[in-house]
Amino acid sequence: MADTAISGGKTIAMGVVKRNPGMALDMAVVDAVRVNKSASERRVAALPGRRAVKKDAQAAWLLNAVTCIDLTTLSGDDTAGRVKRLCAKAMQPVRADILAAMGMADYRIKTGAICVYHRFVSTAVEALQGSGIPVAAVSTGFPAGLNPHAQKLEEIKASVAAGASEIDIVITREHALTGNWQALYAEIQEFRAACGPAHMKTILATGELMTLRNVAKASLVCMMAGADFIKTSTGKEPVNATLPVTLTMIRTIRDYQKMTGYKVGYKPAGGISKAKDILIYQSLMKEELGDEWLRPNLFRIGASSLLADIERQLEHNIDGAYSALRRHPIG
After folding, report:
1. Which is it for strands 4-7 and 10-13: parallel, antiparallel or unpaired?
2. Which residue from 173, 174, 183 is spatially nearest to 206, judged by alpha carbons?
3. Apex CA 247: angle with CA 176 and CA 263, to 5°?
4. Exposure pattern of 247-273 as b/e (b: 16+ CB <10 Å)?
């Protein structure tokens, strides 16, 4: 993972985060979970007007967001050529002339990871060799997660063997929807074991879990089972990352840290395509979890088109004019 982050124009070294080992499933804690939906909605609705960053401070926040992006391509028409172009963009996500004008030419700006299907893991690993950028593979029957369980485990192992150092798994939504938390816990434990040294991001598909209470319970159970990150969505659901869901999940992360002492990362994914939106997400992370969760070892953003809009905003910060998006290709 990346070893530095940008905050307020400074580059900050990241400390080592001890990997979450999980814990025994505690149903008393899970059953006690409550979420006040109206209070959550009021909390996030107030953010845009209360937390505004402008000019150079905004540019620094946007550069920080770049370092946290899992630059992603998960389309049926993906090709090796597209993945290689995306990897090149990950290594140079912001144009050199923009970085030079910002006084950031000497800083090592790169994305948090590249995220692809298993088929393209080896292609991405080869293209990123020497860059320090990890390859994340979606797995376990992504996006529906309805493949046979044994097949899911083999898929994880195959991606790790191909060089993926991060695995984005999807949960069986039925377990959460029917309240079968023991089954979800056991599933995630087995996925974690199959990942071995690779970090596991657990996709909840929150848009399909019906309630914020289900989201909170699923988040907690996955962390108890050893998730390194909890992630909102596959990007394929009708509703993906939202601010109320984010607030619910990161407060569960905070509760889990208080309970165990271990820090778990957070990844919103799907539907985050505008620079102004990621500023709000970072503000929420800062206020609820602190600066440490603004760094790529604990915060990732699943996105593709977001990077183009960030680059466009950074150029605007320099010359005061908005350029066409076609001048900022993502791959």
Report:
1. antiparallel
2. 173
3. 80
4. bbbbbbbbbbeeeeebbbbbbbbbbbe
Alpha-carbon span 172 to 183, nearest angstrom: 9
Adjacent-strand bridge partners of 281: none
**Inter-residue contact 198 to 169 (CB < 8 Å):** no
Catalytic-labelled residue, pool 89, 201, 217, 231: 231
Residue 137: strand pairing partners: 116, 167
Tell me the pLDDT band of 14, cut-offs 50, 70 and 90.
Answer: low
293-316 confidence digits (pLDDT tens): 999 999 999 998 999 999 999 998
Q: Which member of 110, 152, 168, 277 is catalytic?
A: 168
Whole-model pTM: value is 0.93
**Catalytic residue, candidates 89, 267, 277, 309:** 267
Please state, in angstroms and as integers, the Cα–Cα distance from residue 7 to each residue in 132, 150, 291, 303, following that order.
21, 43, 8, 21
The fold of 4-327 is TIM Barrel (3.20.20)
What are 189-205's pLDDT values in tens digits? 999 999 999 999 999 99
More confident residue, 167 or 317: 167
Find where tokens 């778990």 sit: 264
Angle at Cα 298 formed by Cα 297 and Cα 304, nearest 5°?
A: 85
Bigger pLDDT: 46 vs 137 = 137
274 labelled catalytic = no
